[in-house]
Amino acid sequence: MGRLQGKRAVVTGAASGIGRASAVLFAKEGAKVVCVDRVAEALEGTLAAIRQAGGTAVAQAADAGDEAAVKAYVERCVAEFGGIDVVYANAGVSGGGTPLLEQTVAYWNEILRINLIGPFLAIRHAAPLMVKQGGGSIVMTASVAGLRANAGMSAYASSKAGVISLAQTAANALYGTGVRVNAVCPGLIETGMTKPIFDGARARGSEGKIGQLNPMRRAGRPEEIAAMALFLASDDASYVNGQAYAVDGGLSSTHPFAGGALKLS
Ligand SMILES: NC(=O)c1ccc[n+]([C@@H]2O[C@H](COP(=O)([O-])OP(=O)(O)OC[C@H]3O[C@@H](n4cnc5c(N)ncnc54)[C@H](O)[C@@H]3O)[C@@H](O)[C@H]2O)c1
Question: N or C terminus: which one in the chain shows less Cβ crowding within 10 Å?
Answer without folding.
Answer: C
